Amino acid sequence: NGPRMPTRTIDGVVSPKLENEYNDNDFRMLQLNSKAKHVLFCVVGPNEFNRISSITYEGTNQVKESKISMLVHEYELFVMHANECISDMFSRFTTIINSLKNLGKSYSNQELVRKILRCLPKSWTPKVTKI
Question: Per its UniProt record, what PANTHER family does this chain match (predicted)?
Fold first, then answer.
């Protein structure tokens, strides 16, 4: 939501506003931030995006290890959902892999290909066999 979250002050205590409390100025500031983010996403290619996102704040070592553990768990249990197209499934998979890579945990291409092939449903068996 940007560097400046809409806030309210009650009895000298500053706290974030609930979305239903936003005024026109709050929405305008959030919209400007969204436009700025959109421009950046359009300008930065995928390789540059991965480099930039790997610089983001990772937290303490415990937080980093916890994130890695959670993402490895997601990776291990990864399957293609019913009625999900291959491109959506691959996007979900890529997000997990990129997040792990940014935290310093990576898998070889061979491991990634095997994982993708294993997570496909039975209806894909002829194609998987052919690959």
Answer: DUF4219 DOMAIN-CONTAINING PROTEIN-RELATED, TRANSMEMBRANE PROTEIN
Torsion of CA 31, 32, 37, 39, to 10 degrees: 120
Give the dihedral sign, CA 106/107/108/112.
Answer: negative
Whether the full predicted model's pTM is greater than 0.70, yes or no, is no
Distance CA 28, CA 2 (A): 12
> For the chain, how many residues are written?
131
Of the candidates 52, 51, 38, the one whose C-alpha atom is nearest the C-alpha of residue 2 is 38
> Is 75:95 a contact under the CB 8 Å cutoff?
no
